From TrEMBL:
This is Protein-cysteine N-palmitoyltransferase Rasp. It is found in: Membrane. The lineage of its organism: Eukaryota, Metazoa, Ecdysozoa, Arthropoda, Hexapoda. It comes from the Eukaryota. It is a multi-pass membrane protein. One of its GO terms (molecular function) is palmitoyltransferase activity. The chain crosses the membrane at residues 35-52, 58-79, 99-120. It holds the Pfam family MBOAT.
C-alpha cells in the first residue's frame, strides 16, 4: 500500500542523476561508517542545500524536505514493526488505504509549502506557512481534507496503472 502523491522519498528520487550521486557518494559511505539513517539523510540534504545555493529559502526547502522524509521513514519503520499485523487483521484494504491517506495529508501540506520556498522564495513560502498554521480549524480541516482527497485519487491512479501494467504483461 503506497500513497503515490505524497511519497516524499519517491519524489526526491525523481531526478535520477542527483539521486544516484547523493545515494552513492554521500548516503552509502556514511552508512558504511555506521552513521544512523537520519544523520546520513541529513548530510545528504545538506549537500542538496549547498548544491542549489546557500540562500535562506533553499535552506528552509531542504530542511522541510528532510523533515518530511524523516517523518515518513520513522512512520514506516514503526508501522511495519508494531502496527502492520494488527491493521491487516483489523481493517480491510480500503480502510487501510484511507488511513494512510489521512496520515499523508499533513506531509503533503508540508511538502507543498517547501516547494513554495524553493520556487517562489522566502516571502511567499512564509505567507503560505503562516496561513497554514494560523488558519482557523475549519480552514485547516478543509485544506487537510482536500489533500486527503488528492492522496486518495493518486492512490487509485497508481493502483490502476499497476493493474494495467500487469494486464499488458500477461497478454
Amino acid at each position: 500500500m503506497t500513497v503515490n502523491i505524497i511519497n516524499i522519498t519517491k519524489k526526491s528520487r525523481s531526478n535520477i542523476f542527483s539521486q544516484n550521486y547523493i545515494f552513492s557518494y554521500i548516503y552509502v559511505p556514511l552508512k558504511k561508517v555506521k552513521f544512523p539513517s537520519y544523520l546520513a539523510s541529513f548530510f545528504s540534504f545538506c549537500f542538496v542545500y549547498i548544491w542549489h545555493g546557500w540562500s535562506k529559502d533553499i535552506m528552509v526547502w531542504a530542511l522541510l524536505n528532510y523533515v518530511c522524509v524523516t517523518i515518513e521513514s520513522a512512520f514506516k519503520h514503526y508501522y511495519n514493526k508494531y502496527i502492520r499485523k494488527w491493521c491487516e487483521q483489523t481493517f480491510n484494504c480500503n480502510w487501510r488505504q484511507r488511513f494512510a491517506c489521512m496520515l499523508a495529508a499533513p506531509l503533503l501540506a508540508l511538502s507543498a509549502i517547501s516547494n513554495f520556498y524553493f520556487f517562489a522564495g522566502m516571502d511567499v513560502g512564509n505567507i503560505f506557512f503562516r496561513k497554514f498554521l494560523e488558519g482557523n480549524t475549519q480552514r485547516l480541516c478543509t485544506v487537510l481534507f482536500s489533500l486527503y482527497c488528492c492522496s486518495q485519487i493518486s492512490s487509485y491512479i497508481k493502483k490502476r496503472e499497476e493493474l494495467s501494467y500487469l494486464a499488458n504483461k500477461l497478454k
